[in-house]
Design brief:
By secondary structure, the chain is of the alpha/beta class. It has a single domain, classed as Rossmann fold (3-Layer(aba) Sandwich), CATH 3.40.50.360. Strands 1, 2, 3, 4, 5 and 6 form a 6-stranded parallel β-sheet that branches. Strand 1, helix 2 and strand 2 form a beta-alpha-beta unit. Helix 1 crosses helix 7 and helix 2 packs across helix 7. The longest helix has 26 residues. The chain is globular and about 50 Å long. It starts with 12 loop residues before the first helix and ends with a helix.
Length: about 230
Amino acid sequence: MSHEIDRRMVLGAAGAAVVTGVLGRGSLAQAPATPQKVIAVNTSLRAGKTTAAGLTLCLEAAKEMNPALETELIELAGLSLPGGPAAGVPLGPEERDDFPRVMAALTDQRTAGIIVATPVYYSGLTFLCKAFLDRLGACRRDNFALADKVGGVLAVGVVRNGGQELAIQAVQNALLCQEMIIVGDGRPTAHTGATLLNPGTDDIAGDEFGLATARNLGRRVAQVALRLARTTKG
């Protein structure tokens, strides 16, 4: 379910380091006995574009916290996520449902962190993001299978103040209902999550501040996930 990301989209990552800062790594040097994993879920209808590029930065930064950390990008574009099961409506005889394999990846015991990303549509979520969040109700029914996993959110808008934080908060609210541990983008930006700008060019390389928030979010999710893993195993 991973897609190759056009590297030109993330050329601005080096410049973003000016405001990204460095999180302490000393306490994270030793990996847990069982390899941990961070999964990024792209709810954009356009696979491999700017939202995916932002998530790629998150995952790269997460892995910097510990090379043993596994990462995966799941693209929901092209998958079938019928809404009926979220309301108890059975699938039709010809209806395909790809959600069970997405859920299996998210609920895997190795998955310690989940980053959800959405483009901003009218200060809100994509319908694919809403369908995904609604279908996560199955995780609640499965003894809260996502409980205590670390969650972070990324949003991409066409202007700097284009509703990114509203979209992030909507996703966070849904993840809180799963008993997940929600984090923001971490120091030094340290706000609700990663907020990126795509000015209609499908190129986020010039958005140094947004790229910094993406990397900070990836680091923060990994940082908390690894600490929790050590505490649990200790």
